[in-house]
Task: structure prediction
Amino acid sequence: MNKEKLSYIEETGILFEQLGMTRMAGRIFGLLIVSDQNTVSFNHIQEVLNASKGSISGTTKQLIAVGFIEPVSLSGDRKTYFRISKMRAGTILKARLSLFYKFSDVIDKGNALKEKEDEISDWLREISAFYKWLGGAVDELIIRWEVVKDTIMENQAKDHEKSEK
Result:
């Protein structure tokens, strides 16, 4: 693996860390992005990232759960392989959308359990309302994305072709 790819893998790890995930999650995701293979074995991930089996195992489970990667079985091979998930962008976000509403419900429930109103109660109502609103707004954006996606992707492909000339 060349230095540029290794640097990218580390950069992706730092970004994931800033997003609240683990650096290892970003490193694995970054490795799968820059790999010239469609699938990457568990052992290869462990070797390139110089990480323990436990770290790779736990982190790949997290990345699968959020829909970023998927496990792959190859016929006649007992090894575990992974690839970038082929789940549609809107589907990944929609799967997380219910968490916005659950977070809002938990905030409302906690606020209702308080024995007196205070300035925190106002803040909790605002946060709850914001997450309900955000959930609806994201749902609308996903619908809009599906309408315009093909056009955007075609334009992006044309721009990419022009930049390679």
